[in-house]
Amino acid sequence: LHVRSRRQRQMCIRDSSPSFEYSKQEVVKQNDFRYYKFSDFLVPSVTSILRISRPKQIFNHSSKQADSFEIGNLMHEYLDCYVTDKKIEDSDSENSKIALKLSEVIINNIFPKIDTFISTEATVHNNHEYAGTLDLLALVDGKLTIIDYKSSYRPKSSLQIDEHFQQLAAYALAHDNMHNTKIEQAMIFVVYKESYKYEILTSELSLLNKYKLMWNETLDYYKEISL
Hints:
Blueprint: H1 6-10, E1 26-30, E2 33-38, E3 41-44, H2 46-53, H3 65-84, H4 94-109, E4 116-125, E5 131-140, E6 143-152, H5 158-179, E7 185-192, E8 198-204, H6 205-226
Parallel strand pairs: 6-7
Antiparallel strand pairs: 1-2, 2-3, 4-5, 5-6, 7-8
């Protein structure tokens, strides 16, 4: 994936940018629920907590779901490789071609808006209550920003957007707690699979704080139904 040169990419990564240490945890799936394995105990994933706590049928599923899941995973992999300057293995599969095009939309149109790339695909947890993997931590307009990549066939509903921002709020709380940071905003980069158009959804600090409250309510509900 060589949309910009290595020199251009390095210009976005300042020597003075903060650096954080992260550990990798194995992800375990039990009864269609994802956990992160820490030593000898399992910590529920943010995405699984949100899924099990949501009202039934708020997300529409289609026959494209399996392909969408693979395309989304490949897109995340390609963007991680781009940020970390790793080589992407060539693939002739249709899903990989779509994922590559989606990645290029983000790289060409959205990544130039980023001041500094800080962390990519980093695992965070909040006192082992929950855990997750953030897509990207960066400086955008001088603000420490947590970012999520999404691919979609259609515009997101308000319920979906709320859930996605709760996910980022959970990660922000965890990262701030683990690394003594002050994440100031959250962003979702959405790319549409058929048109290859994109949009940036932003939650600045005041709204992000509201999503943190929503997440804490979701977490409390999950704990109640898990007893």
